[in-house]
Design goal:
20% helix, 8-stranded mixed beta sheet, 2 domains
Length: 322
């Protein structure tokens, strides 16, 4: 299976610094280190790759916050624009927008060749002066600028990078956490999932499996309230979840207003009651969504508290690791 890690559930926002402050002050993410920020004049963006826990053994997936930035024109063939404004505009006026959900693959050349043989529309950006690795974009073509076709990724917007470029500890591959620091009550542990609302699960799953060789790990629920969890190789990676929103009142209301698109980001914590106390102490508005079936109790931070994100917190032990 090609896909190792959901590297960074992302959000397109007007102001990276403002979102970063809200992440820290309103929901308690660690203070960003200088090295977690990126500013690219080659590609025209500013970004933060935030972490919910400093240890990559515990939390290999990060949160990407991105906004358009100044771009220096260059004749270099590798200095391809990020097209952030154009991709955001394709998603209308919804409050939660993606630039691209970033996946990683240890078999990057093989994946690209598979897509080529299958006729999947894609573009591979070569390493540039500022980014030392290739980037694969689904739905875009070489020389096609921001022209995008949703036929090959069901309109979900994916980027794939080589896993090797991340320099992750080898133990991340099997989920081993020996030697990782202790987690205090109320502290975040890892990014568990990014959900995406879809009208009908079956055709989306068929496209992802046929065109991207990406199967679902499992499909849960009954008709009208199904959730597909897409497979990845690394156990502690965040999962990409496709959700039919019919019977979940929050998701159904969001879908009715803004249609299909990126939705909630789920983060695990040690001791959910301690996290509730922490949010109350910060004056952060949230609701408790009671457990439903196999789904654990959720603390849902109000939409708009952190620009670009809808955060859910769940008990780490309840979430489990595949």
């Amino acid at each position: 299976m090609y896909y190792d890690l959901l590297h960074s559930p992302d959000a397109v926002v007007p102001d990276v610094a403002r979102t970063a402050r809200a992440m820290v002050e309103r929901v308690g993410l660690p203070e960003p280190r200088p090295g977690w920020f990126q500013s690219s004049a080659c590609h025209g963006y500013r970004a933060l790759f935030a972490r919910v826990h400093p240890s990559r053994l515990l939390a290999p997936s990060r949160l990407e916050v991105i906004t358009p930035g100044p771009r220096t024109s260059s004749p270099g063939v590798a200095d391809i624009p990020a097209y952030i404004d154009e991709i955001a505009a394709m998603q209308g006026d919804r409050p939660l927008k993606t630039h691209a959900t970033v996946l990683t693959s240890s078999q990057f050349p093989e994946l690209v060749e598979d897509l080529r043989r299958s006729g999947v529309r894609h573009r591979v950006d070569p390493p540039s002066r500022e980014l030392g690795h290739e980037r694969l974009w689904i739905g875009f073509s070489p020389g096609g600028g921001s022209d995008y076709s949703p036929d090959d990724d069901a309109g979900l917007f994916f980027e794939v990078i080589p896993t090797q470029c991340l320099g992750l500890p080898e133990a991340v591959r099997d989920g081993t956490t020996a030697g990782a620091p202790a987690v205090a009550p109320g502290q975040m542990v890892r990014v568990a999932a990014r959900s995406y609302l879809v009208d009908d699960l079956d055709p989306v799953l068929a496209i992802l499996e046929k065109r991207l060789s990406w199967p679902a790990e499992r499909v849960e629920g009954a008709s009208g309230e199904r959730r597909a969890v897409m497979a990845v190789n690394f156990p502690r990676s965040a999962r990409f979840e496709l959700v039919e929103p019919r019977r979940d009142p929050d998701a159904a209301a969001h879908f009715a207003r803004w249609g299909p698109g990126t939705y909630a980001t789920r983060i695990t914590v040690r001791c959910i009651s301690a996290k509730a106390d922490d949010l109350q102490a910060r004056g952060t508005p949230f609701r408790i969504l009671p457990a439903r079936g196999a789904a654990a109790e959720i603390l849902r931070v109000d939409l708009g508290v952190v620009p670009g994100f809808l955060f859910d917190f769940v008990e780490d032990e309840a979430e489990g690791v595949a």
